[in-house]
Write a structure and sequence with these properties.
The protein is globular. It has one helix and 44 strands. The chain is mainly β. The longest helix is centred in the middle third of the chain and has 6 residues. It has a single domain, classed as Methanol Dehydrogenase, Chain A, CATH 2.140.10. It is 1% helix and 41% strand.
């Protein structure tokens, strides 16, 4: 064991123990070389920039061995607060003379942890708070409570810095009562601040009638996951409940220097949205570098300009396609439902759910379609053609496919995709599997789970070995929380849940509403209000 002092560029310092025994690792490469790793990495929310939720390199966990006899809780890794962000995993990380598989967890106490996956040993822990600071209070909003530190899922770049870098945003409050939002860049091996971090989040954006709207760090929370694409870190911002004033910010930073590169506000002219929520989901990116997100309720101009865009640039309740070009972020296409004004007035957010980019699909005419899917509070499942999104038409929606009332009670979560199947977990409803054929989605689910999921529903993920051995993992927000595993080919077949084992063997803590499980190399990681639960094969 060796002690290491982690310094955080003038913010708090944390003394930690580093267990570097190399359990399950391989010999580290020579100094200055990148470690070779053959295990599975989960470096961003829902596994990839498309937000598919699928890990297709799972060789250990199969429908045949995920059951209460062979699979269960291995350990609970204690942390200092709620884990609202999805745990991330880096395999074969160089630590001294060893290579270790590491799981990273961030808490609402503004603390980030790194644990050895195979032993549970704490490798490092670092506070993101400045001297004399505390995590933010809940800003008179019950949605994230009692404190706000790290809510959004971080993102990892294994090629940034000497050992790879974890990018994370934290909120804090200083002794004078001022609020701060900061982007941090933490060295994967040590937790030390790197790349010139941390960086205070700041921005301004012009209003259509003149003047500017200015980013106030106390009025916003970064709930949506960070996105890393083409060397830029994208942060996106929601309000605390619907407490005005707030608008919808997308702010990008150069990952090498943490210099702000571009700002877009998707509702700059109002004081009540739209914000960017997505229930913890993050903006998605396609192969051409275009970004996609769902906006929440708020201002939308039904008077359009000559190109069919809202006259003043306010995009409430919309699918947005955004292009990054130099120092600009620009909405280049969009879809807004015909009854947007009524839906916004009744707080029926499209942006209560997240966007998922589907793989290329060939329709009945032989045309390759590039589609994005999303759903929110209005119970409708929308499938939009990314090449021609449909924009706004008051007489009726003009999109690729629309399934009204497909998701009764609405969506406060994010979907997953695997093997021509889309999985959605609406609030108070079973997890449902809809199938694709010739780029069209089945109007009814092909299967659904035996039991329903309480608020906020569930945000599933998938593990599989290519197209084989597919398992859908889903978290139930209950007390105790429940981890479920289903056969991906038939959700009626539940393989396992953590209530099945006798004497509460697999109970792992109190449920939490933001949770998406993470699956990597035979392990399943689930955040709770006080820990990261680690599940795997028992023998």
């Amino acid at each position: 064991m060796r002690r290491a002092l982690i310094r955080s560029s003038g913010l708090g310092a944390a003394l930690i123990l580093c267990g570097c025994s190399g359990a399950g690792g391989t010999r580290a490469p020579a100094a200055g070389a990148r470690p070779a790793h053959t295990g599975t990495d989960v470096l961003t929310y829902k596994n990839d920039r498309q937000r598919s939720g699928q890990n297709l390199a799972e060789l250990t966990l199969k429908p045949a061995n995920v059951n209460a006899a062979d699979f269960g809780l291995l350990r609970n890794l204690s942390v200092d607060g709620k884990v609202d962000a999805q745990p991330l995993v880096a395999s074969g990380l160089a630590l001294g003379n060893t290579a270790v598989d590491v799981v990273f967890a961030a808490t609402e106490q503004a603390t980030v942890y790194a644990f050895d996956v195979n032993t549970g040993v704490l490798i490092w822990r670092v506070s993101l708070l400045g001297v004399g600071e505390t995590p933010s209070d809940n800003r008179h909003c019950s949605q994230v409570r009692p404190d706000i530190g790290v809510t959004a899922t971080p993102v990892i770049d294994r090629s940034a810095g000497p050992h790879g870098t974890l990018f994370v945003v934290s909120m804090s409050k200083d002794a004078a009562g001022h609020y701060h939002q900061r982007l941090h860049a933490l060295d994967l091996s040590t937790g030390a601040e790197s790349l010139g971090g941390p960086r205070d989040i700041s921005a301004a954006f012009p209003k259509s009638g003149g003047g500017t709207t200015v980013f106030d760090p106390g009025q916003y929370e970064e709930r949506a996951a960070l996105l890393l694409d083409r060397g830029r870190i994208y942060t996106s911002w929601s309000s605390h409940c619907d407490i005005p004033p707030y608008t919808g910010w997308l702010i990008s930073y150069d990952e090498a220097t943490l210099t702000r590169t571009a700002v877009l506000n998707i509702g700059p002219n109002g004081e009540s949205g739209p914000a960017i929520w997505m229930s913890g989901g993050g903006p998605a990116a396609d192969a051409d570098g275009n970004l996609y997100l769902l906006s929440a309720n708020g201002a939308f101009e039904t008077t359009l300009d000559a190109q069919g865009f809202p006259r003043d640039g306010d995009y409430g309740n919309s699918f947005l396609k955004i292009r990054a070009a130099g120092t600009a972020l620009q909405v280049i296409d969009y879809f807004t439902m015909a009854n947007e004004v009524a839906e916004s007035a009744n707080d029926r957010d499209l942006g209560a759910g997240g966007a998922l980019l589907l793989p290329d699909m060939t329709d009945a005419d032989g045309t390759v379609r590039h589609l994005v899917v999303g759903a929110g509070k209005d119970m409708t499942l929308y499938i939009v053609d990314r090449d021609s999104m449909g924009r706004f038409h008051p007489e009726g929606d003009r999109i690729w496919q629309e399934l009204p009332a497909a998701l009764p009670a609405g969506i406060w979560s994010t979907p997953a995709y695997f093997h021509d199947t889309l999985y959605y977990g609406a609030v108070g409803a079973p997890l449902k599997a809809f199938s694709f054929h010739q780029a069209r989605l089945s109007s009814q689910p092909q299967s659904q789970s035996p039991s329903a999921f309480p608020a906020p529903g569930t945000a599933p993920c998938i593990s599989a070995n290519g197209a084989a051995d597919g398992i859908v993992w889903a978290h139930e927000n209950a007390n105790p929380a429940v981890l479920h595993a289903y056969d991906a080919a038939n959700l009626r077949r539940e393989l396992y849940n953590s209530n099945q084992a006798a004497n509460g063997r697999d109970h792992f803590g109190v449920g939490n509403k933001f949770i998406t499980p993470t699956v990597a190399d035979g392990r399943v990681f689930v955040g709770t209000t006080t820990s990261i639960a680690v599940f795997g094969l028992l023998r």
